[in-house]
Each structure stands twice: as structure tokens, then as C-alpha cells.
UniProtKB/TrEMBL annotation:
Family to which this protein belongs: Belongs to the IFT81 family.
Function summary: Component of the intraflagellar transport (IFT) complex B: together with IFT74, forms a tubulin-binding module that specifically mediates transport of tubulin within the cilium. Binds tubulin via its CH (calponin-homology)-like region. Required for ciliogenesis. Required for proper regulation of SHH signaling. Plays an important role during spermatogenesis by modulating the assembly and elongation of the sperm flagella.
Domain IFT81 calponin homology: 3-126
Name of the featured protein: Intraflagellar transport protein 81 homolog
Keyword terms: Acetylation, Cell projection, Cilium, Cilium biogenesis/degradation, Coiled coil, Cytoplasm, Cytoskeleton, Differentiation, Phosphoprotein, Spermatogenesis
GO cellular component: ciliary basal body; intraciliary transport particle B
Coiled-coil parts of chain: 137-253, 411-452, 483-591
Biased composition (Basic and acidic residues): 364-377
UniProt record, GO biological process: cell differentiation; cilium assembly; intraciliary transport; spermatogenesis
Length: 676
């Protein structure tokens, strides 16, 4: 409790309250002052509640505060009986009620200020159902709900912009950093200009560099356009392929189906859709509306405590017990005449449940099929991007299998032919080897004959000359063909260059005009940007000055308003005192003794006389007590001595009795011994 009070005092001493309390002064506040303090805190959260509670009735004050605390979702501690005590304490200004409320409000002032602001626009007005039957009222209510939703969206966007936006200080720092960078760049440009001026033909070189930069930018833009056109072409091809596949499927469906089957399929689809529209969807919508209604009702109610939840749980248990009792009574009073109808009802309910289950399964199957189709399209697009082929349909796959079988048969035939050719190749290779051996033997014989005749090497030289002449003729033929091909290629290239020049001439002419207009627009854009920056800087300076001025004026206004309230309160208190003084003077001057008795002076005079008489009586009593103090003390001492004397006598008497009893016991024991 002490920590709570310490926190409240610290918060009230800060802005915007500035109460200058301490723990003692805050704890000594009366109920009316605590209520005014609570009203001031609520007025800081919601300006509509910044009122003087002396100008309104206590019931109005309590109702106003309870409404705002309900909007702010304040949870009073305790059970339902404690809630009534909370309301009573709020009316009377009890410390045990006001202190926790102040502690809760001061902990989250900013959050509650936002909630109170939103409550002005988002607390829905409940319109009775009978008034909503009117079309005009229904239209206004619908428009009201739409405006409420629009306000929600705009508030969310505003909060996001506040979170993501930069402050003026950050913008100024960025502007100053950009200005510094601009100055550095200007200095670098000046230094580079001075360096370039010493070079010969620097103007021409600068012009060439500028043209090179422009051509590079143009090249980048053309490459980007080419990429965009490629992507557009790819998407268009995908759409075309999907359309062709759908057309092929439709053609196959039309070719394979008959009118009767198509009509039957359409009737099944119509029946299913009509079942969804007339039975399933309305039932689901009704259940959703019911749940939304209950959720809205729960959200509109104030926050529930654990005690409320336990009470609701007990009510639910009681209702369930009543339901079970009614079911048991119904079973006991069950009439056998309704057995057939109940059987039919059970069958109808079973069939309806099966129908609903099948409809849900069909809906789930359709959703799964649509998701699988989307996955197939996605996979096909990925395969196309990676350079692969599209997925085959069922008919295409059958055609592919038939082609594969025919190719397999052809492969087996070719394999057999290759085996036969391989065998024949072995035979020919053996024949070649035998012929080579024979040729070598004949060559050896020919060389021996040439040596005998004296013309060795004649046959080899003749063969070499024949081989060289054959190679030369082949080379001459290849050179002639190459020269012809090159001349034809040169003619084609010249024709293509001339055609490209003719086609690009108007484009180049138009490009020159566009470049000139682009330069003009760029220069104009830079000028406008400079003007905008200067204007924005000036407006920002003016805005900051105006913000400071407005802030100062607001503070001055708040101070003056506080002074006005203080002076007004002092004026009222002085007026009340003056009125009381006038009434007192009127009563004192009045000749009526009853009126004079009601005067404050007469009342105080009477009280003073009573107190004086009481003081005289007390002084007399004190004098009597002082005079009788000595004898009384002496008498009290005598009584104390008398009490001690009597106590001493009692102890002696008790000792004498004990000794007499012991002597009697000894005498009885001696007599017994004598008898024995």
C-alpha cells in the first residue's frame, strides 16, 4: 500500500498534473477531494471528463466515471458483492477504492488515452431490431458500420506511419549530410575540371565520354526491356500452352462423350451446387452469424473476473442438469405410437448427415484437385524455366509409350544388323590382311626385278606422283568452293547492313529528338528539385517555429486556465463566506429571539458559557481532590496494613490447623500400636 501511494504521489507531482503532494498531504485528502483528483486524471485521459464535480450531482459523477472505467476495461477487484461496494465507494470517495483506480490509471496513461480516443468512434450504438426494419434506418446503420471500419483502417495506417516515419531531427541531419556530400562533390568536380583543362581536346573527350555514358545507359535500358519482353513472352507461351491443353481436353471430352452423359454430368453438378446454395451454405452462414453475434456480445461486455467465470460455470452446470432431467422425463413419457415417426426421423437425420459428409468430401476433393492442378502448373513453369519439357498428359504418354515400343523394335533390328556387319567386318579384315601380305610379296618381287634391270624405286616414285596430283586437285576444288562461299557471304552481309541502316535511320532520328528532350527535362527536373528543396527547408523552418510558438501558447493557456480555476474557486469560497457573514449579521441584528439564537455568535457564546461552567466545576472538583488527597492516602495505607495483618493471621491459622492434624494422626498411630 505504501509503494502504491508513493507511485501515485510521484506521478501526480509530474507533468501535466503538478500537484506538489507528499505522502502525508495525499493521505489526508477527503472523499470529495479524492473524487476531484480522480476526475482530473480521467480528464487528462479524455478531455470530456475535465469537469468540476461540484457542478454536478454525485450520481452523475459516479455514472460518468463508471462509464469511462468500463470503456477503459478497468477490472474492479473482488466478487459481484464487492462490485456493489466498489460503486458505493466510488460515490462516497473511499480511499480503498480511489487509490487502486488512480494507481491503475497512472501506470498506463498513454495507452488509456489512445483507448479513450478510439472509444469515441468505435463504441457501437445498439439499434433495436424493430427499428432496423425501416430501410432508411438500416441504410444509416450500414453506413455507420462502414465508416467505423474505414476509421479503423485509417487509424492503423496512421499508427504505422507514425512508427515508420522519420523525425524532423533525423531529416535535418540527413539534409545536412547531403549538403556536405554535395559540397565535397562540387569540390571534386572543380579539381577534375582543372586537371582536364590542361589536356588537349578535352572538350571533345568529354563529349565522347558523355556519349559513351548515354550509350551505356541506353544499352542497360534495352537489356532490361529485352528481359521484360522475354518474361512476357514466356508467360504468354505458358498461357498459350495452358489454353491449348484445355482446348485439347475439351475436344477429347466432346469427342468421347455423348449428349446424354453431358446432360447427366451437368444435372449432377447442378444438384450439388443447388444443395450447397440452398442447404449447406445458409446453415453455415447462420452458424457463423450466431457465433459472431455471441462473440460481439462477449466483446461488448466489460472484462470478467475469475468470480464471474465461476458464477457462469455454475449456471452452465445447473442448465445442463436441467437439460438432462428434461431428457429423462421425455424418455419416461415416451409413447410407443411415435416409434414409426422417430424411426423415420432417425433415418432422415442419418441420411442428411451422410449427405453432408459426402458433400464435404466432394468439396474437399475439388479443393484438392484444384490445389494439385496449381501445383502441376507451378512445377511445369519451374521445369520450363530450368530448360526442361512440360509434363505429359495421359494421351501424350500413351503416344510416347507406343513410339518407344516401335523404337525398341527398330533398335533390336538395327542391333542384329550391326552384329551381321561386325561379322562381315571381321571377314573383310582377314581378307585385307591376306591381300596386304600378297601385296608385300608382289612388291618385294617387283623391287627385285627393278634391281635386276637397274631402275630401282621407279614404282614407288610413280605412286607418289599420282597421290600428290590427286591431293592437289582436291585442294584446288576446295579453294574454289571456299572463294565462292565467301563472296556470297560478303554480298549477304552488305545487303543486311544496308537493310539495317535503312530500318534504323528513322529510329535514330527519333532517338536524337528524344535525347534532346530528355536533356531539357533533366535540366528542368534539377531546377525544380532545387526549388523544392529550398521551399521544403523554408517550410520546415517555419513549421518548427510555429510548433514552438504553439507549444508555448498551449502551456500559457493551460497556466492561465489553471489560474482562472483557482481564482474562480477562491471567488466562490469568498462569496460563501460573505453570504454567511451577511446571514450572521442579519440574525444578530434581528429582533426575533429565535432568529438570534440561530446566529453563530450566539451559538459560540452559549458554547463558551457552557465550557466556562464546566471548567468551574472541574476546578472545584480538583480542589476537593487536593484537600482530601492526604487523608485518603493515609486511609489507603491503613487499609493496606490491615490487609497484610489479616493475611498474616490467615497463614498462622492454616499452619495451626496443619500441625493439629499431624498430631492427631500420630496419636491414632500410637493407639493402634498399643492395641496390637
Amino acid at each position: 500500500m505504501g509503494d502504491q501511494m508513493q507511485f501515485i504521489v510521484e506521478k501526480l507531482n509530474q507533468e501535466p498534473f503538478r500537484k506538489n503532494y507528499n505522502l502525508i498531504s495525499f493521505d489526508s485528502l477527503e472523499g470529495l477531494q479524492l473524487l476531484q483528483l480522480l476526475s482530473d486524471v480521467l480528464g487528462e485521459i479524455d478531455p470530456k471528463h475535465a469537469v468540476d464535480i461540484r457542478e454536478e450531482l454525485p450520481e452523475q459523477t459516479a455514472k460518468r466515471m463508471l462509464n469511462l472505467l468500463g470503456i477503459l476495461k478497468y477490472k474492479p477487484p473482488g466478487t459481484v458483492s464487492d462490485l456493489s461496494a466498489f460503486r458505493q465507494g466510488l460515490v462516497t470517495g473511499s480511499k480503498t477504492v480511489i487509490h487502486p483506480v488512480l494507481h491503475w490509471l497512472l501506470q498506463r496513461t498513454n495507452e488509456l488515452r489512445t483507448r479513450a480516443y478510439l472509444a469515441r468512434f468505435l463504441v457501437k450504438l445498439e439499434v433495436p431490431a424493430e427499428f432496423l426494419q425501416d430501410d432508411a434506418v438500416a441504410d444509416f446503420n450500414k453506413q455507420y458500420e462502414e465508416l467505423m471500419e474505414a476509421f479503423k483502417n485509417l487509424h492503423k495506417e496512421h499508427e504505422q506511419l507514425k512508427i515508420s516515419g522519420l523525425s524532423t531531427a533525423e531529416i535535418r541531419r540527413d539534409i545536412s549530410a547531403m549538403e556536405e556530400e554535395k559540397d565535397q562533390l562540387a569540390k571534386r568536380v572543380e579539381r577534375l575540371k582543372k586537371r582536364v583543362e590542361t589536356v588537349q581536346n578535352h572538350q571533345r573527350m568529354l563529349e565522347i565520354a558523355r556519349q559513351l555514358r548515354l550509350e551505356k545507359e541506353r544499352e542497360e535500358s534495352l537489356a532490361q526491356q529485352k528481359q521484360e519482353q522475354k518474361s512476357q513472352l514466356f508467360h504468354a507461351e505458358q498461357r498459350l500452352q495452358r489454353a491449348q491443353a484445355q482446348l485439347k481436353e475439351m475436344q477429347q471430352v466432346v469427342a468421347d462423350s455423348k449428349p446424354e452423359s453431358l446432360m447427366k454430368k451437368l444435372e449432377e453438378e447442378i444438384n450439388f451446387n443447388s444443395y450447397l446454395v440452398t442447404e449447406k451454405i445458409p446453415r453455415e452462414m447462420e452458424s457463423k452469424k450466431t457465433s459472431v453475434y455471441f462473440l460481439q456480445k462477449v466483446a461488448a461486455e466489460p472484462a470478467m473476473t475469475q468470480a464471474d467465470l465461476t458464477a457462469l460455470q455454475s449456471e452452465m452446470d445447473e442448465v445442463n442438469a436441467e437439460i438432462n432431467q428434461l431428457i429423462e422425463k421425455r424418455i419416461i413419457t415416451y409413447e410407443p405410437t411415435d416409434s414409426k415417426f422417430s424411426m423415420y426421423r432417425q433415418q432422415a437425420s442419418i441420411i442428411s448427415r451422410k449427405k453432408e459428409a459426402k458433400a464435404e468430401e466432394l468439396q474437399a476433393a475439388k479443393e484438392e484437385m484444384s490445389s494439385l492442378e496449381r501445383q502441376v502448373e507451378q512445377k511445369s513453369s519451374q521445369a520450363h524455366e530450368q530448360g526442361g519439357s512440360e509434363a505429359l498428359t495421359e494421351d501424350e504418354f500413351k503416344q510416347y509409350v507406343s513410339k518407344l515400343r516401335s523404337k525398341n523394335t527398330l533398335y533390336k533390328k538395327k542391333r542384329q544388323e550391326i552384329a551381321e556387319i561386325t561379322a562381315e567386318y571381321g571377314i573383310l579384315q582377314r581378307t585385307e590382311e591376306l591381300l596386304r601380305q600378297r601385296h608385300e610379296a608382289v612388291q618385294q618381287q617387283l623391287q627385285a626385278i627393278e634391281e635386276k634391270k637397274g631402275i630401282s624405286g621407279y614404282s614407288y616414285t610413280q605412286e607418289e606422283l599420282e597421290r600428290v596430283s590427286a591431293v592437289k586437285s582436291e585442294m584446288d576444288e576446295v579453294k574454289g568452293q571456299t572463294l565462292d562461299n565467301m563472296s556470297e557471304m560478303v554480298k549477304k552481309l552488305n545487303a543486311m547492313v544496308a537493310e539495317k541502316k535503312a530500318s534504323l535511320a528513322p529510329v535514330i532520328k527519333e532517338l536524337r529528338q528524344l535525347r534532346q528532350s530528355c536533356q531539357e527535362l533533366t535540366q528542368e527536373c534539377e531546377e525544380k528539385k532545387i526549388q523544392y528543396d529550398s521551399c521544403a527547408a523554408g517550410l520546415e523552418t517555419n513549421r518548427s517555429a510555429l510548433e514552438q510558438e504553439v507549444k508555448g501558447l498551449l502551456e500559457e493557456c493551460a497556466q492561465e486556465e489553471s489560474n482562472y480555476r483557482y481564482i474562480n474557486c477562491m471567488k466562490r469560497s469568498l462569496e460563501i463566506q460573505l453570504q454567511r457573514a451577511k446571514e450572521e449579521m442579519k440574525a444578530y441584528v434581528s429582533s426575533d429571539p429565535q432568529e438570534r439564537r440561530r446566529a453563530v455568535r450566539e451559538q459560540y457564546t452559549r458554547i463558551i458559557l457552557e465550557q466556562e461552567n464546566l471548567g468551574k466545576k472541574l476546578r472545584e472538583k480538583q480542589k476537593v481532590v487536593r484537600e482530601s488527597h492526604g487523608p485518603n492516602m493515609k486511609q489507603m495505607k491503613m487499609w493496606q496494613d490491615f490487609e497484610q495483618l489479616m493475611e498474616c493471621k490467615r497463614e498462622c491459622f492454616l499452619k495451626q490447623q496443619n500441625q493439629a492434624a499431624i498430631g492427631q494422626i500420630i496419636q491414632e498411630g500410637g493407639k493402634d500400636r498399643l492395641v496390637l
